Structures are given as structure tokens and as C-alpha cells.
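Peptide methionine sulfoxide reductase MsrA
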Amino acid sequence: MKQIWLAGGCFWGVEAYFLQLKGVLSTRVGYGQGAAEQPTYQQVCTGMTGHTEVCEVTYDEKVLPLPKLLEHFFRIIDPTTLNRQGPDRGTQYRTGVYYNAEEDKAVINGFIATMQEHYTAPIVVEVEPVAHFFPAEEYHQQYLAKTPGGYCHINLQLAKPEERK
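Structure:
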């Protein structure tokens, strides 16, 4: 069992996408990489806390190895757009991959270097150790499951049927 934290715009869609994948054991959305202690959604939305909306993904690396997980992540983001995904704009919507196992850093950086070959614009996905992760308010957890038809800029159908639970 491993963990990774992914920032890909609004965390509702990132969480909904990853929850449907084989090998994902659990998710939790929250705020990471900022300076404020225990920030609220309203505070993060101001762009003044330095936090980004992230989805913590706990996964079985035997079923879903990190490179495959990153492949999924790159399916649902525009890695060349800074501080924006879909219609969501602001530093809280920047993209990032945050890790807690030092050996993951080389895998992530290698994956991004390989992906860069497919883009003319530079990839701007942050790669850093996870810092200051605070779970979001309960109403944000699995929001799209609780709110059918709720806002989501991510195409949840990008996961192939054989990749789903």
C-alpha cells in the first residue's frame, strides 16, 4: 500500500476519476503545499494560503504501479497549463504530484521527462514532497458520489472499462 497526492484542478473530479480504478484503495481530498494551518475551503479559494486542492490516493502498487497511476493522471489534466484546469483558475488549481517516499521522486521525474516528448509547451506539473496536507471539509469528500450531476471538468469516462473496478 502506497500513497501519492495529486493536484489536477478541482479535487472533486480527480477523486471521482481515481476512485473508479482497480488498485485504488481509498481517496481523501484536501489542501496541500500551503502555509496556513487547517485552512478552510473559503480561505484556499482566495489564493492567499498557498495551498492547492489535492487528492490523496492510497493504492496497491502491485495492481496499479506508480507509472500507470501517473499515466491516468496525465489523461485528466493539461500538464502545460499553469494555475488552471478547465474553467478553474487560480494557484489553488495548479497541477502537482506530491510524494512521501523518496524513491518515487525519480519515477515521477522520469515519467514527466518521457511525457515532455509529447508536448511542445513545457510541462509545469510541480513535483515535491507532500507538505502540509489538511483534509477538506466532510462535504467535499466523495462530493460527486453525493451530488449526482455535480460540477466536474474531468471526463470520468477516460478510464477504460478494463481499468475500472
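The two ends are 17 Å apart (CA to CA).
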